[in-house]
Design brief:
By secondary structure, the chain is an alpha+beta fold. About 50% of the residues lie in helices and about 10% in strands. The protein has 17 helices and 11 strands.
């Protein structure tokens, strides 16, 4: 096994990934100027460009349901750091550990913890965890300086670096001097197209299969910046675990997290939120979205992060207890004799089931069991973190 992360005073060996050519281009002012000049020439000539690394953003059957982590993986792969994969970022953001639930109605676009916190400060914080700078451009800034940022998108693509469009995907190419932007999202293996220049800000729709499209609520952009510092990989994992107790007990003005999220969800069912057919008509977002979160976090795909933490930090072997509890929640969702799915409160939920008082009571009790297990997760995490 690897040596555990050391205290700062012990000066641990830094994590130093191999620098690809594209990073050297970022660090050399002359190269940057030449790339920008070439981009402007291509745009004026109606040219095109595409990054060489084209792949899907996330795979549902791999438990990859939090798309911002897919965006981060994509960008870091293009920067020559494939070991910083989807599971790595799902642990850094806490997405793979944290149930959440709104106070009131579902808020569009909130499918993960990282969706909720997304904004300039949060994006910069995530990039900083792996030593990179980034530039976050809001929709307002983009529209006020559209030509400038379109040039910047094309310049980044010309250097082989995709641009993140908030949480939903990455821009990977352009055609006709930027009048058409190429993007990858979800399970797409070939880029889709947003056409008409600024029109895509009005249409607010992208396609990820021939049959399906999704409206997006934000066109905020994230440009990757320079590598600022090298951080021991063991320390990155260690710090991510140390942050979890606070995240799993957090409550904001409009959301619950961790055990509080499960209890609020159970209370809503018990108190009749879903008695209104109009509410239940939006069953995926108002109800099943939160089944998806607990199913994702209790899946086998979750445990790779825990194993890597322990591999790099043998003094954190107690994390195996936490991993076992998330596996238990996975069984409570779809494997146990009285699991949520068999009770009719999982992905198979129906309006009729929730109106049956006896069945509803069992569903409510099961969801509160998830809260109790999460309390135990927090107890183990707090004890383990205190002893580090």
């Amino acid at each position: 096994m690897s040596e555990p992360a050391k205290k700062p005073s012990q000066q641990p060996e830094s994590y130093q990934p191999k620098k690809p050519e594209m990073m050297r281009a970022l660090e050399e002012a002359q190269g940057e100027t030449q790339a920008l000049g070439a981009t402007r020439a291509a745009a004026s000539a109606g040219g095109s460009g595409i990054i060489p690394h084209i792949r899907y953003l996330v795979k549902d059957n791999h438990g990859e349901n939090y798309w911002f982590n897919g965006c981060m993986r994509y960008v870091l792969e293009c920067l020559g750091e494939p070991e910083l994969d989807y599971g790595f970022f799902a642990g850094i953001t806490g997405d793979n550990f944290t149930q959440f639930y709104p106070k009131g109605a579902y808020k569009p676009g909130m499918c993960a913890v990282s969706d909720y916190f997304m904004g300039p400060d949060y994006a910069k914080w995530v990039f900083d965890q792996v030593g990179y700078a980034c530039e976050y451009v809001t929709e307002q800034e983009l529209l006020a300086n559209f030509d400038t940022y379109l040039q910047k998108i094309m310049s980044s693509i010309d250097r082989g670096i995709p641009v993140i469009n908030c949480n939903w995907g990455v821009f990977v190419g352009y055609e006709d001097g930027g009048k058409t932007l190429l993007y990858i999202t979800h399970e797409m293996e070939e880029p889709g197209r947003l056409t008409g220049g600024e029109r895509f800000t009005e249409e607010r729709k992208f396609y990820y299969t021939e049959e399906r499209s999704m409206a997006f609520d934000s066109i905020d952009l994230i440009f990757v910046g320079e590598k600022k510092r090298d951080i021991p990989l063991a320390q990155i994992y260690r710090d991510a675990i140390a942050r979890l107790p606070a995240l799993l007990t957090k409550e904001t003005e409009d959301y619950y997290f961790g055990a509080g999220a499960f209890r609020a969800w159970a209370d809503d069912i018990e108190n009749g939120k879903y008695d209104d057919p109009a509410v239940f008509d939006e069953d995926w977002w108002n109800y099943t979205n939160y089944v998806c979160v607990l199913a994702t976090n209790g899946s086998d795909d979750h445990h790779g992060f825990d194993r890597k933490v322990i591999e790099l930090n043998p003094d954190m072997a107690w994390l195996e207890e936490v991993s076992a509890l998330y596996k238990k929640m996975g069984n409570m969702w779809h494997k146990d004799r009285d699991c949520l799915e068999k009770l009719g409160g999982g992905f198979n939920v129906s309006y009729k089931t929730l109106q049956n008082k006896k069945k509803r009571a069992k569903i409510v009790a099961k969801i509160r069991e998830f809260a109790d297990v999460t309390d135990e997760v927090v107890r183990i995490l707090e004890k383990g973190v205190q002893e580090l």
